[in-house]
Design a protein that fits this description.
483 residues, alpha/beta, Rossmann fold, seven-stranded parallel β-sheet, six-stranded parallel β-sheet, 21 helices, 13 strands, P-loop_NTPase, nucleic acid binding
């Protein structure tokens, strides 16, 4: 017999069955529990707050880390016919923001960045509103970004500490035991219900290949793109290299565009939409791209470097094969890449000299923003020190920064170890997240044995079948609704 939740699932979303973990998470939310849910990429995390939103009486606040992710989620809801959805972000003019604040409680789904939540006007408005649920989307960012990049994530703890606050749902695709602890602490989760699905994606086949030089690396990337099917994403560490790769590959006839944080927001959104529509087959990007990009048929993820952590690597390769078909995750590296990754991860990190300059400015009654204007500190330096120094002494702050920097370096060492030793890549990744691998698929990884031609051929073989099945489901759902 169909339950009430299954009926809502079909009537509102057009699905006949929940994916693993979804129903249990939704039930915990409806029971007004704090919830931490870890679902692999492509397993429908957004449904876990969208469905409760329709079953609960008041607004749902979704804290989202990236403007592109926020806009993508807003657009999805609007395509479903939901008009009571809005995003408050830095692109609003002051008059637009004030007008929106006046009628904010008329919206069902309200998307906010952590920085927007911390603005006094916004906090004051939220305190006057009835709220059914607070959602921290991509909650791993609280740990991975909050301590050393966007401290407003950590300030969410203060905002969520008031008595009688609504339940909190934290959603992520990857979380190590340490990150789970960070999320629970920083969001003030009260005895949370924790739902964890296996993070293994058997259809993603891992490969790590050492090359002699950066020139060889590009030639191998170009050869792989020409030999094996896309769509795909190439991840690199610098904006300059993203542009260079895209330019070189486009001259070879590949439909590709670059994407990074140095581009105008409207240009980034345009490229993302082209990729989703199939007008661009490849995107060459820094890690600014991919979060919240709902494209099911990504066949390849290529890295030209060691990512800054296993969690980041898992997030990025997890954007492949959301349709369940086989996909390749290939990483090309040289012996020097480890040092370069450490430099990139720690270059914009405050040290003792930055702490001293910052404190002197404050003692002289000067605004920290002037440090950025004068080129003495970066915006990231100021953000980090503005959070830590009011809470800790200068010596304690320096110790915290040393510890965070050391952790970053250790995470890169771990990524390199996993990708370059002789053990199964898949098994090692799963173990980092405190899980066990039950079964290795054929063509598991380059350590266990990988014939890429078989992976790609299998993907091509089943692509038409997938398209046919998709249309059959849509037609069947349409007839059932009419009945």
């Amino acid at each position: 017999m169909t339950s009430h939740l299954e009926k809502v699932l079909f009537d509102k979303f057009g699905y006949s069955a929940f994916r693993p973990g979804q129903k249990e998470i939704i039930q915990s939310v409806l029971n007004k529990e704090d919830v931490l849910a870890i679902l692999p990429t492509g397993m429908g995390k957004s449904l876990c707050y969208q469905m409760p939103g329709y079953l609960l009486p008041y607004s749902v606040i979704i804290i989202s880390p990236l403007l592109s992710l926020m806009q993508d989620q807003v657009d999805q809801l609007k395509k479903m016919g939901e008009k009571r959805v809005v995003a408050m972000n830095s692109f609003l003019t002051p008059p637009e923001k004030n007008a929106l604040l006046q009628k904010l409680d008329t919206y069902k789904f309200i998307f906010l960045s952590p920085e927007m939540v911390m603005q006094e006007q916004v906090k004051a408005k939220l305190q006057t509103m009835p709220i059914s649920l607070v959602v921290a989307d991509e909650a791993h960012c609280i740990s991975q970004w909050g301590f050393d990049f966007r401290p407003d994530y950590l300030r969410l703890s203060d905002w969520l500490s008031f008595k009688g606050r609504p339940p909190v749902l934290a959603l992520t695709a990857t979380a190590t035991p340490k990150v789970i602890n960070d999320i629970t602490t920083q969001l003030n989760l009260k005895t949370p219900s924790i739902h964890i699905q296996s993070l293994d994606r058997p259809n993603i086949r891992y490969e790590a290949l050492e090359v002699d030089s950066q020139e060889d690396k590009f030639e191998l990337i170009a050869a792989q793109i020409n030999q094996f099917s896309g769509p795909g994403i190439i991840y690199t560490q610098s904006r300059k290299k993203a542009d260079e790769y895209a330019l070189k590959l486009s001259t070879m006839g590949i439909r590709i565009a670059s994407y990074h944080a140095g581009m105008e927001h409207v240009d980034r959104m345009f490229i993302q939409q082209q990729f989703l529509n199939g007008e661009v087959e490849w995107v060459c990007a820094t890690n600014a791209f991919g979060m919240g990009v709902h494209k099911d048929d990504v066949r390849q993820i290529i890295h030209d470097h060691f990512p800054s952590s296993v969690a980041n690597y898992a997030q990025e390769v997890g954007r492949a094969g959301r349709d369940g078909l086989d996909s390749l995750a290939t990483l090309f590296f040289t012996r020097d890449d480890e040092d370069h990754s450490i430099f990139v991860a720690t270059n914009d990190f405050p040290d003792e000299s930055h702490v001293k300059v910052y404190k002197e400015f404050l003692q002289n009654g000067q605004h920290p923003g002037q440090l950025v204007e004068m080129g003495l500190l970066s915006e990231t330096h100021v953000r980090i020190l503005t959070y830590w120094l009011p809470r800790k002494s200068a010596e304690e702050t320096i110790n915290i920064l040393h510890q965070l920097k050391r952790q970053k370096i250790e995470q890169i060492y771990l990524v390199k170890e996993i990708l370059t030793n002789t053990s199964c890549i898949r098994q090692q990744i799963i173990e980092v997240f405190g899980q066990k691998l039950n079964e290795r698929p054929d063509n598991c990884c380059s350590k266990c044995g990988l014939i890429k031609e078989e992976v790609v051929n299998q993907s091509k073989k089943h692509e038409n079948q997938r398209i046919i099945q998709t249309w059959e489901k849509r037609i069947s759902a349409l007839f059932q609704r009419n009945d």
